[in-house]
């Protein structure tokens, strides 16, 4: 008998499937396809069972299915302790649970799992659309929970309405908790979602890499300044330094990457900070890049946790960026380094390294210049002048042959930043000047509303640095020689017609859309600033702003007051709501009398009229007779005669006179004796 | 039910648990005294998370770990949202029961070993819709009631009864898990439900037709039997079926035929007929006979020590007979 | 002058005015009621409660149905009431062959005048005792009951008003008796009250044996009030106050009959109104300017007993249960 009630009705099933679907939908793109099919098949099977056409799978079959799914997981994922396999495992547990979705308990398990799956979505990305979608899934799952209670609750409008109401009522408390609850920081190392992230500046540079980036308008960095703002031509966001060239591709080379032994100063103050020169203070919010490289102006220092400085003046993060990351930086980009530390011989060798052969024409040309007795700077300006005179800046450079530097410098003479930077560094090294390619972003677009700089992927740029004895590393941007607009105004003005030629929607051509896009980015920025990057530091700031001073008492008040108000309001709502019409005062007072008499041992029977009751009291408890008689008469006059004065008297009787009632019957004999 | 529970308790040694249960019952009876109509309010309602609610908390805890380890504020937000929902849920669950009025309408007699049903009315006076209210005796499924559009609903709740007599039902449990099933709010109320339980009908042989043990064949003359006796002048009000149509057709006045029977051929269900069986079996057999006789349309009377009911037929008579059997004093020896 | 009503403060101005007027005429409600009750009590021993109920019924302008076995004094009660109130009185013994015209009257052609002349039936009286009403055919019953409701009679297309006041006291035998046609519910509803007299108490019966013939006593009864006083008293009933608390109680009672599964049919609005009116009359009879729950409980069996239908058990048991289940103050 009790089992029947526990079996899931149709509405419950459909709601569960809806909740699972909503929770799984955004994950499907990442999950192996077979999981989606398995889930759909399990749903189909369960519905067939409901229609009575099939039975739930037996134990051997279930066992087989479990084996199959485990095998499938093992095949699909080599790594077990990562986010995707975890999500996949959850999705599969849905699927398997569907095959034994019988009782109310199973339904609860399934829906609680759904909450969890919905949450893993946020681990992947925390943008506004994801947040909205997450909210919708929570709404649906909650509605599904509500729908488990009965057919009336399972009506879509009713269930969703209830869910919306509950979540809306919970929101104030949620906000409070969000602000107040302490963040502990990671308790242990967790597997990251390695599937996220996009193209970006990578740790090597071959001809064509940056051309690819120039086609993407995805945001890469958002930079907000605190104080002075560098002029456009100074906005070089350094990310990587390439020192090793194999004739075609530029790489960082051995011993730079902290992952293979490059030295990094993780603690602030480990490296002396420059004392002079203009200093910029800014905060960079970097999109997930799947690499540890951070971007900053030259000579940076950062106090943010997990950020370190490398020897070649860059910032790196201890772990790759699988989600947005924000860090505070101070930079001294024009630090003259009054007394530069001389380049070590290893460093010098490293920055002079060239392939043994190849690009002979370039080497010959440099040799000619050197024979003329030109110094490093003269050769550099010769080359830059040549770029300026003969070269063309284009987003669609022709393909280059084996000796790519030769081909660029002497044949095609058309190229993109990477060509200019690569050929420049090659030439300088050939001339015996230590030089390196620096990759990162250059420029950025002001979003005036928030006063932050938006750097997009197409702002990716490569330039060069040469070592000048006595002056240290000096930035040289060969691209600026051929196309000064690139540096001043950005890629769009430099590339003209070529800019974003392949994109489906030429957004940049429509003013309104450009504005809209910036607006959207601003909203995103604000979202990130206030919500996503809300950490214990910001928490402290916020609380300090709200409370003035964080004392335990204030904290407790701050936390307890709203909770108390909310709970009180809800309690009041239920009490008032459930009361319907208030009982008249007379009847309540009479109720007091009845309870008192009941305690004395004579409870009023339901439906017993006051006079009958009074008589019964008089008969059973003579010592209460007078009082009962008086109360009854007064009650009758007040309740049925409508006398206002009687109500007052009744109130007096039951508030004060009641207290004087003898607790025990007065002994008649004793009384007589007195 | 109460009887069985008590006997079960007697069988157990008096444990501490037993003591606490008794203490709880006493406390409850003071806090929520017996009445035929009860309005649920905060003093009678209790609320605790269900097992699903604990599972929910577990999920919240895991989500918090996830959020902390990934330093993911959206997961934090979700965690806190779920916590907040959990905090406000009891208010809803409580509100779903609070202010409801339960009233015992009637109880229906039942046979021992069967289910006795009480008819109960559930009503609300306020505007709030109520859902998914379970009213049941512990261990039984009971009834599920919604008060959505309607303000009042009648329903039946069944209780298995094992022994005949007047059975005082244990406390009813009114329960709701609205809205998400994560909290259970309940009240144990005593609606003063008392069942009249007839003995369990047990076949004890064929009906004792013509076996009148008392007084024998020479009963008093009774009017209205099967045997035709005489004619008497018709009076308005006499049954038309008894009109002497033949005489009327022959030109005489209207007459009524009179019938009478001299022998007591009536069916007496007699205690003495079942000599040699124990009390309960006798009562069960008598009960069975009464049902049979009623079904076959034979007027029957009852003779048990202390009670004699003259033969008759019909619902009321049957209830009287069965009632007499049910309330037959228990043999305590 | 002694107050006629327990508490003057509780009275509505209209009631006070009415009572003053009557007092100035030498009457008080208290005196009238006690006189009437004692007068009738002298012929119908030990039935004070029933007499009062009948009086309440009359004062609230309702018709009365007395259901009891023959010889219990039904007729005596009806007769005594009419006598004491100084009203014209007719009695009709209902039989199965009775026709509607026997009650309402008939138009007869008179040769002298050459015109149809209407001969009024027994219904044209102030008090009509309809004896054994359930012996007549449904057709005749309904003719009477129609007259009761409309307080007028339509014969041969002409509508004739009945005298004022018009008060029907019907008696009927218990339904189990043979040769009866039960009154349908719709017609039972027309009677404000149904009472039964029941066997007299031992003392009353002894007094009956010792005392003079009630019939002779009956003849000695003198009218205690006149028509205008009766009408005034009837209008006073409407002035008796029913407080909110009382109306709540009444509402709960009525609602319970409609909701409870005990009752196949709940009290109709007319039944509820009748209940209130009868309770008011009862309160007035007991010299009160307001209605108490006791008043309702006192008249409830008589007013509701025949209106409620139950699955099992009689209406009276139902009323008994009803009173136990509905508390006088809201829970």
TrEMBL record, chain A:
Keyword annotations of the record: Membrane, Transmembrane, Transmembrane helix
Keyword Membrane set for record: yes
InterPro entries for the chain: Bact_TGase-like, Papain-like_cys_pep_sf, TgpA-like_C, TgpA_N, Transglutaminase-like
Transglutaminase-like domain ranges (all copies): 409-480
TM annotation in the entry: 12-44, 56-74, 108-124, 130-150, 553-573
UniProt entry tagged with the keyword Membrane: yes
Protein name, entry field: DUF3488 and DUF4129 domain-containing transglutaminase family protein
Gene source species: Microbulbifer echini
């Amino acid at each position: 008998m009790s089992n029947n009630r526990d079996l899931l009705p149709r509405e419950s099933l459909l709601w569960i499937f809806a909740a699972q679907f909503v929770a799984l939908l955004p994950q499907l793109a990442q999950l192996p396809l077979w999981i989606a099919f398995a889930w759909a098949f399990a749903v189909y099977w369960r519905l067939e069972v409901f229609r009575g056409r099939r039975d739930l799978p037996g134990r051997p079959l279930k066992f087989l299915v479990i084996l199959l799914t485990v095998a499938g997981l093992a095949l699909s994922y080599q790594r077990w302790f990562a986010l995707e396999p975890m999500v996949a495992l959850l999705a599969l547990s849905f699927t398997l649970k569907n095959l034994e979705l019988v009782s109310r308990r199973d339904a609860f398990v399934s829906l609680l799992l759904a909450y969890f799956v919905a949450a893993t979505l946020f681990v992947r990305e925390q943008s506004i659309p994801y947040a909205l979608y997450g909210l919708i899934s929570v709404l649906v799952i909650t509605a599904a929970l509500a729908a488990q209670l009965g057919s009336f609750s399972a009506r879509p409008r009713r269930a969703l309405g209830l869910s919306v109401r509950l979540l809306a009522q919970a929101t104030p408390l949620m906000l409070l908790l969000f602000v107040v609850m302490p963040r502990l920081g990671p308790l242990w190392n967790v597997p990251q979602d390695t599937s996220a992230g996009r193209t970006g500046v990578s740790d090597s540079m071959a001809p064509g890499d940056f051309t690819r980036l120039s086609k993407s308008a995805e945001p890469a960095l958002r930079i907000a300044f605190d104080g002075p703002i560098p002029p456009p031509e100074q906005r070089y966001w350094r990310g990587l330094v390439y020192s090793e060239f194999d004739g075609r591709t530029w790489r960082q080379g051995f011993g730079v990457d902290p992952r293979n032994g490059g030295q990094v100063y993780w603690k602030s103050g480990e490296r002396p900070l420059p004392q002079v020169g203009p200093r910029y203070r800014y905060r960079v919010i970097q999109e997930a890049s799947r690499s540890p490289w951070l971007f900053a102006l030259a000579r940076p220092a950062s106090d943010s946790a997990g950020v370190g400085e490398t020897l070649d003046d860059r910032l790196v993060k201890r772990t790759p960026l699988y989600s947005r990351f924000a860090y505070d930086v101070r930079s001294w980009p024009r630090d003259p380094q009054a007394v530069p530390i001389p380049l070590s011989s290893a460093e010098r060798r490293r920055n002079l390294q060239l392939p043994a052969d190849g690009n002979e024409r370039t080497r010959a040309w440099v040799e000619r210049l050197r024979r003329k007795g030109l110094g490093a700077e003269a050769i550099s300006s010769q080359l830059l002048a040549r770029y300026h005179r003969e070269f063309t800046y284009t987003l669609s450079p022709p393909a280059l042959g084996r000796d790519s530097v030769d081909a660029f410098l002497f044949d095609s003479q058309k190229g993109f930043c990477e060509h200019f930077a690569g050929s420049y560094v090659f030439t300088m090294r050939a001339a015996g000047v230590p030089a390196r390619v620096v990759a990162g972003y250059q420029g950025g677009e002001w979003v005036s509303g928030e006063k932050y700089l938006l750097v997009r992927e197409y702002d990716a740029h490569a330039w060069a640095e040469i070592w000048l004895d006595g002056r240290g590393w000096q930035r040289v941007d060969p691209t600026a020689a051929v196309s000064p607009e690139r540096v001043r105004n950005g890629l769009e003005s430099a590339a003209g017609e070529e800019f974003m030629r392949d994109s489906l929607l030429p957004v940049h051509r429509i003013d309104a859309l450009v504005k809209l896009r910036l607006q959207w980015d601003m909203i995103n920025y604000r979202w990130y600033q206030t919500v996503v990057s809300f950490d214990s530091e910001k928490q402290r700031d916020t609380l300090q702003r709200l409370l003035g001073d964080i004392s335990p008492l204030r904290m407790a008040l701050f936390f307890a007051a709203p909770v108390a108000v909310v709970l009180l309001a809800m309690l009041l709502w239920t009490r008032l709501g459930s009361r319907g019409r208030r009982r008249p005062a007379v009847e309540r007072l009479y109720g007091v009398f009845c309870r008192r008499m009941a305690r004395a041992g004579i409870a009023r029977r339901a439906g017993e009229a006051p006079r009958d009751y009074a008589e019964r009291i008089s008969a059973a408890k003579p010592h209460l007779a007078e009082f009962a008689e008086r109360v009854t008469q007064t009650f009758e006059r007040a309740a049925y005669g409508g006398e206002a004065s009687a109500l007052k008297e009744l109130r007096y009787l039951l508030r004060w006179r009641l207290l004087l009632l003898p607790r025990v019957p007065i002994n008649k004999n004793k009384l007589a004796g007195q | 039910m109460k009887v069985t529970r008590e006997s079960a308790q007697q069988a157990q040694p008096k444990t501490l648990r037993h003591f606490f249960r008794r203490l709880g019952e006493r406390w409850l009876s003071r806090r929520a005294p017996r009445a035929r109509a009860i309005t649920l309010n905060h003093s009678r309602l209790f609320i605790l998370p269900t097992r699903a609610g604990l599972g929910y908390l577990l999920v919240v805890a895991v989500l918090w770990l996830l959020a902390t380890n990934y330093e993911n504020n959206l997961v934090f937000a979700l965690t806190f949202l779920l916590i907040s929902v959990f905090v406000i849920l009891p208010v809803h669950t409580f509100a779903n029961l609070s202010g409801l009025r339960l009233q015992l309408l009637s109880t229906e007699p039942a046979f021992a070993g069967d289910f006795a049903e009480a008819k109960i009315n559930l009503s609300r006076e306020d505007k709030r819709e109520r859902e998914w209210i379970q009213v049941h005796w512990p261990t039984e499924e009971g009834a599920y009631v919604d008060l959505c559009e309607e303000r009042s609903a009648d329903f039946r709740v069944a209780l298995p009864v094992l022994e005949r007599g007047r059975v005082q039902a244990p406390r009813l449990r009114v329960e709701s898990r609205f809205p998400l099933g994560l909290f259970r709010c309940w009240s144990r109320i005593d609606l003063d439900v008392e069942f009249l339980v007839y003995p369990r009908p047990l076949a004890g042989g064929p009906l004792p037709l013509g076996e009148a043990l008392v007084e024998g064949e020479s009963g008093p003359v009774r009017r209205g039997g099967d045997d035709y006796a005489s004619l008497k002048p018709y009076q308005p009000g006499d049954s038309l079926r008894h009109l002497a149509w033949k005489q009327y057709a022959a030109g005489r006045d209207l007459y009524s035929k009179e019938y009478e029977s001299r022998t007591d051929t009536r069916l007496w269900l007699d205690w003495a007929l079942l000599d040699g069986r124990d009390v309960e079996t006798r009562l069960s057999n008598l009960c069975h006979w009464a049902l049979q006789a009623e079904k076959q349309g034979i007027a029957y009377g009852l003779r048990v020590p202390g009670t004699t009911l003259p033969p008759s037929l019909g619902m009321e008579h049957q209830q009287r007979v069965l009632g007499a059997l049910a309330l037959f004093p228990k043999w305590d020896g | 002058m002694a107050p006629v009503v327990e508490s003057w403060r509780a009275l509505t101005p209209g009631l006070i005015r009415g009572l003053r007027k009557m007092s100035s005429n030498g009457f008080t409600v208290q005196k009238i009621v006690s006189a009437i009750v004692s007068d009738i009590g002298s012929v119908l021993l030990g039935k004070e409660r029933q007499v009062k109920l009948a009086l309440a019924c009359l004062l609230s302008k309702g018709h009365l149905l007395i259901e009891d076995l023959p010889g219990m004094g039904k007729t005596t009660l009806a007769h005594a009431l009419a006598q004491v109130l100084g009203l014209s009185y007719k009695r009709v013994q209902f039989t199965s062959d009775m026709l509607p015209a026997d009650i309402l009257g008939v138009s007869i052609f008179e040769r002298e005048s050459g015109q149809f002349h209407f001969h009024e039936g027994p219904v044209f009286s102030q008090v009509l005792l309809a004896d054994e009403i359930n012996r007549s055919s449904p057709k005749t019953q309904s003719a009477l009951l129609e007259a009761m409701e409309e307080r007028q009679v339509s014969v041969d297309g002409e509508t004739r008003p009945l005298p004022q006041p018009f008060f029907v006291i019907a008696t009927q035998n218990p339904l189990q008796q043979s040769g009866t046609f039960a009154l349908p519910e719709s017609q039972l509803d027309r009677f404000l009250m149904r009472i039964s007299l029941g066997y007299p108490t031992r003392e009353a019966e002894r007094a009956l044996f010792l005392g003079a013939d009630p019939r002779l006593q009956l003849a000695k009864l003198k009218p205690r009030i006149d028509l205008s006083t009766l009408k005034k008293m009837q209008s006073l009933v409407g002035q008796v106050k029913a407080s909110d608390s009382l109306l709540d109680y009444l509402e709960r009672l009525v609602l319970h009959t409609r909701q409870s599964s005990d009752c196949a049919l709940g009290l109709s609005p007319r039944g509820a109104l009748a209940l209130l009116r009868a309770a008011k009359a009862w309160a007035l009879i007991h010299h009160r300017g307001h209605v108490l729950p006791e008043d309702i409980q006192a008249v409830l069996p008589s007013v509701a007993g025949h209106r409620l239908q139950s699955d099992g058990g009689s209406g009276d048991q139902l009323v008994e249960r009803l009173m136990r289940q509905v508390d006088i103050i809201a829970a």
